[in-house]
Write a structure and sequence with these properties.
The chain has about 600 residues and is α/β, with parallel strands linked by helices. Among the domains are: about 100-230, Diaminopimelate Epimerase, Chain A, domain 1; about 335-555, Metal-dependent hydrolases (TIM Barrel, Alpha-Beta Barrel). It contains 19 helices and 22 strands. The strands form three sheets. Strands 1, 2, 3, 4, 5, 20, 21 and 22 form an eight-stranded mixed beta sheet that branches. An eight-stranded parallel beta sheet has the order 6-13-14-15-16-17-18-19. A six-stranded mixed beta sheet has the order 7-8-9-10-12-11, with helices on both faces. Helix 17 packs antiparallel against helix 18. The N and C termini lie far apart (about 60 Å). It binds zinc ion. Zinc ion binds near residues 96, 98, 259 and 490. Zinc ion binds next to loops.
Length: about 600
């Protein structure tokens, strides 16, 4: 009898172990066998810009051509998909985003100028949130924006205390470069008027009597708040990460990027790898089984740049880490800040206007400054580049870009750097006279093009003035110089909508309809390339992604209209119907 029980227990354990093994080593199928036909297929490949049909096999493009040719490849297993006159094209890249920050902000109370046009509307939302939140709980509002919400001024700590007397309250600005807290928020993280500022450019603002004003400037000073809030939002963070990725898929994005990942440990990288990598890891599948990681399914690709000062534990052995679906490509630096708080670094001063004086608190003749010394940048670049990593550096102002380019020039005198395709991020005031040097060093800009749409009017009237704002974001100059560049929304700063980026690149109109830099408009085709094949080149994967060419991955987006044929004003109204990564549907519009 005892033997029988032992045998039964043994069989049961064997069964459980086998089931766990099957689960751990099982992954979603990468198989597919599909022919697309019956619509417009834009390849983004100059040799054959359009084809009639395309055959996808096991995630990759097997063949393209006319319908008769491709139909000959059909077998009994082939699924035929009639595009029904719609347009299929390569999936979009979100060339510069922040999944970590977007996930962090997801679900917070929105007070942005995109949705709230008057100060009263902003404070009403915050007030309503205070009323429904139990005493002592954190209230965090995102999107504070004195530019889009006309007349909104920086709140004082006394005002925030009266608004939220029983809850720690934090306002996060739309630019993510400044924050405002009430007294309880400062108390919660242990910051007093005696606390030392982390750096000269990142500080807790004090009034003339040395008391906190509520303003927290830049990331280093915000760090203790970030850690505290992360604790509060920990439970929903994993769900938020997958939600943000799905939002990307909904707008046709097949490859996302995180520029400057902040993390103290490897948990977030494990989560990202688990969600996007081409193959699953048994350890991660086990963690999925016990509910520590979410369910793995076909998802957007993810390319990561760590912060330049990332802890050692996050840094991979070499740039040959990950796979075609998930990879840490390099490191992100910041040379200057935002045009919307006065930390962009300019040659000529900011305009002295009501906005710069009262909204940003800038003294007259303010020009911003570099956030890091050139010699420190050079030695850090040298170290990263010697390990093969790509560099991406935030540079908005003309002086910032010029000094960054000169640091790359010095590095190039030590050894050639063109193979790295180092990236210049945002490039609001990229001086045209630097373009030959930028080309020689093979530096590649990613343009924050929707500065024109959302803040074009403020840049022209209040921040830069007419002559400088006509010169912003010189994308057509790069087309003329035949040098690849990409477009981005810097999500969560602006919502990630690739077709809206295309719209701005083509029309260059602000919200009020003003055109900024008419001669820098580009064609729809060049705009689409900036969102696909040029971006793939920036990510060192143009041989695998970004266009429809035999043997490349079948990352695709289905649109209801052909962007090349609609009126330029109609681009923003084109709908994304379906998104595929490696031939697998990751979003389908019902
Ligand atoms: Zn960014």
């Amino acid at each position: 009898m005892k033997k029988k029980i032992l045998f039964f227990v043994f069989v049961l354990l064997l069964l459980v172990a086998t089931s766990i093994c099957i689960y751990i080593f099982d992954d979603y199928s990468h198989k597919n066998n599909i022919i697309f036909y019956g619509g417009t297929i834009l390849t983004m490949d100059d040799k054959t810009p359009t084809v009639e049909a395309m055959f996808i096999k096991d995630g990759k493009i097997e063949a393209l051509g006319n319908q008769d040719q491709i139909f000959k490849l059909k077998t009994s297993k082939t699924e035929l998909i009639n595009l029904d006159g719609k347009t299929l094209m390569p999936g979009f890249f979100d060339a510069h985003g922040h999944n970590d920050l977007s996930s962090f902000l997801y679900g917070m109370t929105d007070i942005s100028g995109f949705n709230h046009k008057t100060p009263a509307a902003v404070w009403k939302v915050a007030d309503e949130k205070v009323k429904v939140t139990p005493s002592g709980e954190w209230i965090i509002c995102k999107g504070f924006d004195p530019i889009l919400t006309k007349g909104l001024h920086s709140p004082t700590i006394q005002f925030l205390d009266s608004l939220s007397p029983k809850n720690p309250l934090l306002l996060i600005s739309q630019s993510l470069h400044s924050f405002y807290g009430n007294s309880l928020a400062f108390k919660k993280v242990g910051i007093t008027n005696k606390t030392k500022d982390p750096t000269v450019s990142s500080y807790f603002e004090k009034d003339k009597d040395g008391n906190l004003t509520g303003l927290i400037a830049e990331q280093e000073a915000f760090e203790s708040f970030r850690v505290e809030i992360l604790e509060v939002f920990k439970k929903s963070l994993v769900e938020n990460v997958t939600n943000v990725m799905f939002e990307n898929a909904k707008v046709g994005v097949t490859s996302i990027s995180t520029l400057g990942l902040s993390a103290a440990n490897k948990n977030i990288l494990m989560l990202y790898e688990h969600l996007s990598a081409g193959t699953s890891k048994p350890l991660y599948k086990f963690l999925e089984l016990i509910g520590k990681l979410p369910e793995r399914k076909p998802n957007v690709r993810h390319f990561i740049y760590l912060r330049y000062d990332a802890p050692k534990i996050l840094i991979p052995e070499s740039v040959n880490n990950g796979d075609d679906f998930y990879k840490i490509l390099g490191f992100k630096y910041w040379y200057d800040g935002s045009p919307y708080i006065g930390s962009m670094y300019l040659k000529e001063p900011y305009l002295h206007s009501e906005l710069t004086e009262k909204g940003f608190h800038l003294p007259e003749f303010h020009r911003g400054e570099a956030l890091i010394k050139q010699e420190d940048l050079l030695s850090s670049f040298d170290f990263m580049q010697s390990k093969g990593f790509q560099i991406a550096i935030h540079a908005q102002g003309d002086n910032a870009i010029q000094e960054v380019v000169s640091v790359f020039e010095k590095l190039n005198q030590k050894y050639p750097i063109e193979k790295y395709r180092n990236r210049l991020e945002h490039c609001l005031l990229l001086p045209r006279e630097l373009m030959p040097q930028i080309k020689k060093l093979n530096l590649t800009p990613s343009f924050h093009i929707n500065h024109i749409l959302y803040y074009g009017d403020a840049l022209k009237n209040d921040i830069l003035g007419e002559s400088r704002s006509e010169k912003i974001l010189p994308i057509n100059s790069f087309v003329q110089q035949q040098q690849p560049f990409s477009l981005h929304s810097d999500q969560p700063m602006y919502q990630c909508i690739p077709l809206l980026l295309l719209n701005t690149a083509v029309n260059r109109t602000s919200e009020s309809g003003t055109v900024l830099g008419k001669e820098e408009k580009i064609s729809v085709l060049e705009g689409l390339k900036a969102l696909t094949i040029y971006a793939a080149w920036q990510f060192h994967c143009e041989d695998k992604l970004g266009s429809f060419v035999k043997n490349k991955y079948a990352d695709m987006v289905l649109l209801d209209k052909n962007p090349l044929l609609v009126n330029p004003d109609e681009i923003k109204n084109i709908n994304v119907l379906q998104t595929f990564v490696a031939g697998k549907s990751i979003f389908f519009k019902k």
